[in-house]
Amino acid sequence: MINQNKIEPIIQFDAVTMAFEGGNTVFSDLNLSVPQGSFHFLTGMSGAGKSTFLKMVYLHQAQTEGSVFIFGRNSQHIQHAEIPHLRRKIGVVFQDFRLIPHLNALDNVALPLKVRGVDARKARKQAAELLEWVGLQDALYRLPQSLSGGQQQRVAIARAVIGRPQILLADEPTGNVDDDIALKLLYLFEELHKVGTTVIVATHNRSLPHSFKHPEIFLENGKVTIINAHKK
Ligand SMILES: Nc1ncnc2c1ncn2[C@@H]1O[C@H](COP(=O)(O)OP(=O)(O)OP(=O)(O)O)[C@@H](O)[C@H]1O
Ligand SMILES: [Mg+2]
């Protein structure tokens, strides 16, 4: 079990089973508590269920059995109309980036701030600073389709962190970049973690967590194991 230190879990899975139509059961009877402010790597082989897990947390995929609690709320009791509001508190880097195709890099990154009512000029200024930090200062006005996979990934990361979310979910965020950039991006997540964000980084790269002092949520055969729970 994760060392909870009596801190409220911000994410909780109680006896969760996830079976896709056609009989593919990804999880069965999954129990897990993620304490507020913690940092976990989410590991497991390709197909183990990492993306499915993150989608359930993002309220993008409903479980077939059991209960999922996010911010202490049972996902089954969350009204459809409330979901956008809850999602504003979650920064997410999708495995396939999901940038908005008709917005340039700068406007993609500024979007979460604009949605919250931040003045457009201020939002763009912050977005530009962040894009510079991830090494994309020369790509501010380019559309996603003109960027490489690794560049799109960095735009997606900048967009996920700009609003200082309460939860950051990153699905293979370093899968398309060189090792030095990967470390820099993880450093960005560390900075958010230090100011209280709960971070979950999915990766099938089992060696990545070794460089960090964070436990691993390891998925295998529909079950979960916490590895290095003492690392915090
Ligand atoms: N919409 C879906 N319909 C049916 N099966 C699905 C669906 N989404 C995922 N699956 C199946 O669920 C399992 C877990 O998939 P998931 O994408 O969560 O794995 P993953 O750990 O993220 O893998 P990867 O490392 O390749 O990204 C796989 O067997 C996959 O085929
Ligand atoms: Mg995946």
Attached small molecules:
adenosine-5'-triphosphate, magnesium ion
Residue share in helix: 25-40%
CATH names the topology of the largest domain as: Rossmann fold
Structural class: alpha/beta
Shape annotation: globular
Number of continuous helical runs: 6
What gyration radius follows from the Cα positions, in whole Å? Answer: 17 Å
Number of domains: 2
Structural notes for this entry:
- This protein is of the alpha/beta class.
- Helices cover 29% and strands 27% of the residues.
- It has 2 domains: 157 residues, P-loop containing nucleotide triphosphate hydrolases (Rossmann fold); 64 residues, no CATH class.
- The strands form 2 sheets. A 6-stranded mixed sheet has the order 6-7-8-3-9-10, with helices on both faces. It has a 4-stranded antiparallel sheet with strand order 2-1-4-5, covered by helices on one side.
- A hairpin with a 2-residue loop joins strand 9 and strand 10.
- The relative contact order is 0.19.
- Bound molecules: adenosine-5'-triphosphate (ATP) and magnesium ion (MG).
- The site of magnesium ion has 4 residues, from helix 1.
Briefly summarize what is shown.
29% of the residues lie in helices and 27% in strands. The protein is built from 6 helices and 10 strands, in the order βββαββαβαααβαβββ. It has helices at residues 50-57, 83-87, 105-115, 120-133, 149-161, 179-194, and strands at 9-20, 24-35, 39-43, 65-70, 73-74, 90-93, 167-171, 198-203, 216-220, 223-227.
Q: What key phrases describe this protein's structure?
A:
Rossmann fold; 232 residues; globular; four-stranded antiparallel sheet; binds adenosine-5'-triphosphate; 2 domains; six-stranded mixed sheet; alpha/beta; binds magnesium ion
